[in-house]
Specification:
By secondary structure, this protein is of the alpha/beta class. Strand 5, helix 9 and strand 6 form a beta-alpha-beta unit.
């Protein structure tokens, strides 16, 4: 893990990322030029930065990779056949103690892993530490979870990816964007869309500026109510809505509600992690 090398002035300036982008790929618009690491100059810069500050695992700080195999193997991946279809909790296929079947505008919800151990450290390194290269790794793990769910639980998650018309991400607030200098979910969405060949639709705007991480379920529901505005046409579209972490499901549900009100025919949710326990 290392601090961001360049500061982006605006995520709207970032060009779509190629599906092949993986470890070591980075994009900068801070100086008005895109640096993809593919050219000789980019390779030299990358090599020099690796000498000065080697890449380390965001989960354990071992040098070499952004997410090492030991940390990835220790993640608690959620079983798509046993999880709650409504809120993504690891258990709840029959009775969910997390959401208790509360009404939601999500048609289905899936999270890749439990928010614990290396997963939590990876999220913090990405969002709060500014390690933007983790976007590609998080997208890869989310996509793998969705592919697995389609294959292993087709009765529950069939068509999660292959029938989606667009990827829509839960946007950051203006205050969070100013604090971080980038929209963390937009970068993940660009990678996920590129790898899956599902078009990216930047359809949501979030109003308000509060940080919901310390709020309980009731407060999150109240805070999220009416927080999202749909700014692009979604009528008749099947949406894959993505976020990094599901805590209570309030954010996903509120965003899905706005999309359904704007005419989306269905909204499925996909997240990197689910808080549980």
């Amino acid at each position: 893990m290392r601090a961001p090398r360049f500061q982006a002035a605006s995520t709207s300036d970032v060009e779509p990322l190629p599906a092949s982008a993986g470890r070591g790929f980075f994009t900068s618009v801070g100086n008005g030029a895109e640096k993809t690491g593919r050219g000789s100059v980019g390779a030299l810069i990358e090599a020099a930065l690796e000498l000065i500050s080697p890449t380390r695992c965001a989960g354990c700080e071992r040098p070499g990779e952004l997410i090492c195999s030991a940390c990835e193997n220790s993640m608690q991946f959620i079983d798509p056949a046993r999880c709650c279809l409504h809120c993504g909790a690891p258990f709840g296929a029959m009775v969910c103690t997390e959401c208790a079947g509360a009404k939601t505008d999500l048609d289905r919800c899936l999270a890749a892993a439990v928010f614990d151990g290396p997963v939590g450290r990876i999220v913090r390194a990405y969002k709060d530490g500014g390690e933007r290269r983790l976007a590609a790794e998080i997208a890869r793990i989310m996509l793998s979870a969705a592919v697995r769910a389609q294959r292993e639980a087709p009765g529950r998650y069939g068509g999660l990816l292959v029938r989606a018309d667009a990827v829509v991400f839960v946007p950051a607030t203006a205050a969070a964007f100013r604090r971080r200098g980038f929209d963390h979910m937009e970068l993940i969405a660009r990678h996920l869309g590129g790898r899956s060949d599902i078009p990216l639709l930047d359809a949501l705007v979030k109003h308000g500026s509060s940080d919901q991480r310390e709020l309980g379920r009731a407060d999150r529901l109240a805070e999220a109510l009416g927080a999202y505005e749909v700014v692009l046409p979604v009528r008749g579209k099947r949406i894959l809505l993505i976020d990094d972490v599901i805590t209570t499901g309030a954010t996903m549900s509120a965003a899905a509600s706005a999309l359904r009100a704007a005419g989306a025919s269905r909204v499925d949710g996909l997240a990197f992690a689910r808080v549980w326990g």
